[in-house]
Write a structure and sequence with these properties.
By secondary structure, the chain is mainly α. Helix content is 80%, strand content 0%. Helix 1 packs antiparallel against helix 2.
Length: 61
């Protein structure tokens, strides 16, 4: 069995960065539906990452 060390705090930070960048993209999209819809999909995936990673980090802090 192979085990890998993971840095949950670093992962949570990257997740927050992704969310911030996608939100910025939506702000500058000028309401382009193709951009906004894809950003919505990305943010839904980011939310799942937050639930799985970021919430766990907050629980243990």
């Amino acid at each position: 069995m192979i085990t890998a060390e993971v840095n949950l705090k670093e992962m949570a930070g990257l997740i927050a960065d992704i969310k911030e960048k996608v939100e910025q993209l939506m702000k500058i999209s000028g309401g382009m539906q193709c951009v906004d819809r894809n950003c919505d999909r990305i943010l839904a995936s980011v939310k799942m990452l937050e639930i799985n990673i970021s919430d766990v980090v907050e629980f243990f802090d």
